[in-house]
Amino acid sequence: MKQFKGRPVVAGSCTATALVSHGGFNTLASFQKSLQFGDKTAKCGDQNNPDLFGKPMVGTALCLPQTIGSTTGGMVLYCAKVMERSPSCMLFAEHIDSLAAAGAILGAVWTDTPMPTVDCLGQEFLDYVKDGMKITVSPDGTVTVE
Q: Taking Cα atoms as reference points, which of 67, 68, 109, 104 lies closest to residue 86?
């Protein structure tokens, strides 16, 4: 078990199973099929992300360096949250970008259940965490990996 301290962008607590990407996360490419065609497990549709492609993202602790891609990223995250197709939490090794932050914050403000979002966890976090590990997020930005 190891703990990491990050900056809470959207404070909250949850426990979920890790799903890890070592490359940038393209929000639109990853969620597009799920949001358009009704895949309730939100299998990652980004074929350029071999770490995540084809894996269900709903209810996971999505661990990634940063998001990349379209300016629609924030709205896509918000829509995934509203449609109950979002991860349980998003954990960033680097600083969160403004679009992903906007989507996470809108989801927290406009829905009943915030998606805890923590950034600045560091590269050591991303090197340590592996798919399937148990992740617990605390409101103060502490992330415990078991």
A: 104
